[in-house]
Amino acid sequence: MSNRVEPVVLAKRARKRFSRPWASLTAIVIALLWTTPTFGLLLSSFRPEEEIKTTGWWTFFSQPNFTIENYNEVLYGSGSSGRLAEAFINSLVITIPSVLFPIAFAALAAYALSWVEFKGRDWLFVGIFALQVVPLQMALVPLLSFFSQGVDVGGFTLMPAWDLEGEWKFVQVWFAHTAFGLPLSVFLLHNFMSELPGSVIESARVDGASHGAIFRKIVLPLITPALASLAIFQFLWVWNDLLVALVFASGSETSPLTARLADMAGSRGGEWQRLTAGAFVSIIIPVAVFLTLQRYFVRGLLAGGVKG
Amino acid sequence: MATVTYKGASRIYPGTKKPAVDKLDLEITDGEFLVLVGPSGCGKSTSLRMLAGLEEVDEGSIFINDTDVSNLPPKSRDIAMVFQNYALYPHMTVFDNMAFALKLRRTPKNVIREKVAEAAKLLDLEDYLDRKPKALSGGQRQRVAMGRAIVRQPQVFLMDEPLSNLDAKLRVQTRSQIASLQKRLGVTTVYVTHDQVEAMTMGHRVAVMKDGLLQQVDTPRTLYDKPSNVFVAGFMGSPAMNIKTVPLGEDGAKFGDVIVPLSRERREIAAAGDFDKGKTEVTIGIRPEDCKLGTEADGGIAVEVDLVEELGSDAYVYGHAVYSDGTERFVIRCDGRNMPRLGDVVHLVPEVGREHVFHAITGDRIE
């Protein structure tokens, strides 16, 4: 009872404690613990099949037995579990347009919503953001029937069925990802864009710039950090997506890495050693994207929320 | 080369009843430097933005030369604007900032280079053309904003308090630079400021606004010597004119026992109006420099000194009239080397014929 301490003092004390050497040590230990399984998986992926299945990954240190057979098999092997290389390409084909389309549309929409005056603008913006509330899963079936049956109202065809087959199914996935990604993208970019100083936009208007020119020459260069961070978000989301891909891009010609990985585990449970290599193949691109753009990622997280 | 004409131009912001600019009538001749001045919220910036095309003209119209520009977008008006916060394009170099408007009009590259170089030379910016705005000082940024307007060679320059972000010394310096630059280029200029010193020193003519209404447009001299109403009288000049509303007596205005004589014509105009019986009043304005310190024998108004502001060359004496309850405050300019001390009672002697007389109710000037 006698030792009542002010919160400020407590906070100071806590900060001091966390900056002590053993606090850093604890952080390092936790980081190591977290990384160990991943590291084990990496080691396993380079071990022969029978060793993976009989001994732990740590035996690698006592009897190093290095092979790239697993990678060979998942990338180029025959059968449904192999050919990851193909799925890898599919993933890229799905992901790149699914990142570019929503960002391009969202940037245009955000510009209109923040710098073009028209009636009902604020309500439209609220409406777009409200769409965020609808869970993706609810839209799957209606969207699927939209693709396969088109839109009929009272026997009158508003929109014919798309009837896409084979590689054309990519278009469906692009469409779905774009639609799902737009509300959040519009919201984020709008917040960022409307924080730009109004007089700069006005100055460009007086200088003779049309909306198109203002968008291209003034607004886009100034919101690059927001675009970059949004691109990373959307990229990671689409790359790691399994659900949308399964629904709209089923079939061996179009299925991405995630679908192929799931297949590998499901139909060939006996050959689970392949998952080790498969996992690392699918990680490569996100890690590369993250590392190259992480500078923007950190800066972009603050952007949009606080005036920058 | 252009004239600008406001014809009953009004701006009523959505959701408000009172116009921000109320039926503004104003003619600006070719090559003129017109200053719009007034307290904040008086509609001076709105008037300028209406001319720029950044605000709608809800009633009336605005002409540049003989063209009705009321409904034209900014880019079709051939005007250039300097903003209060400079509004430079932060991602472009100084050169690109100045060349932006020309590039949009597809001016040939060598012409752009020539024009920007010329403007940069004029504004002493030649060494900074490759820099981004963030690497410039406030004064340099302001000059880039000016340069951006100059390279356009527009019909009209619009300037919205371009000096208010500079420090006091730089402001005085830039003030004269802008004025001489305008004289050299001969471009019609509309300049908005809240600073009456800027208005007096820069403008060929000055338009004083208040509550969206134009009060008076005239040369600085006339504005200062013959303000058309109490507001203009109080706004122009620093320190402000001593403006007192006092009882109107048989021979003139009564400051306590002291009478400032007024002619019969003036008294008659001043007395006309809706006064309570026997309580006729008149408003008298005396500039601090139009009165001197005298003695009681000179017929001076007794004033007790509250504060003395020393400016070196001269000094301002602030005090309250002894005859009243102390709310009647006066400012008198006097010699800086011969000034009263705090608490002294001095006598304010108005210079004959230099007083300004206004109607106590309407506030209009009485000649």
TrEMBL record, chain A:
The chain crosses the membrane at residues 21-43, 87-111, 123-148, 168-189, 218-239, 275-293. It is a multi-pass membrane protein. The keyword Flavoprotein does not apply. GO terms for biological process: transmembrane transport. This is Carbohydrate ABC transporter membrane protein 2, CUT1 family (TC 3.A.1.1.-). Keywords: Cell membrane, Membrane, Transmembrane, Transmembrane helix, Transport. It holds the Pfam family BPD_transp_1. GO terms for cellular component: plasma membrane. Its main location: membrane. It is found in: Cell membrane. Belongs to the binding-protein-dependent transport system permease family. Residues 88-293 form the ABC transmembrane type-1 domain. The keyword Protease does not apply. InterPro entries: MetI-like, MetI-like_sf.
UniProtKB/TrEMBL annotation, chain B:
GO terms for biological process: carbohydrate transport. Residues 4-236 form the ABC transporter domain. Keywords: ATP-binding, Nucleotide-binding, Sugar transport, Transport. The keyword DNA repair does not apply. It comes from the Bacteria. The keyword Magnesium does not apply. InterPro entries: AAA+_ATPase, ABC_transporter-like_ATP-bd, ABC_transporter-like_CS, ABC_transpr_MalK-like, ABC_transpr_MalK/UgpC-like, Mo/tungstate-bd_C_term_dom, NA-bd_OB-fold, OB_MalK-like. GO terms for cellular component: ATP-binding cassette (ABC) transporter complex, substrate-binding subunit-containing. Pfam families: ABC_tran, OB_MalK. SMART domains: AAA (SM00382). One of its GO terms (molecular function) is ABC-type transporter activity. NCBIfam families: PRK11650.1. This is Multiple sugar transport system ATP-binding protein. The lineage of its organism: Bacteria, Bacillati, Actinomycetota, Actinomycetes, Glycomycetales.
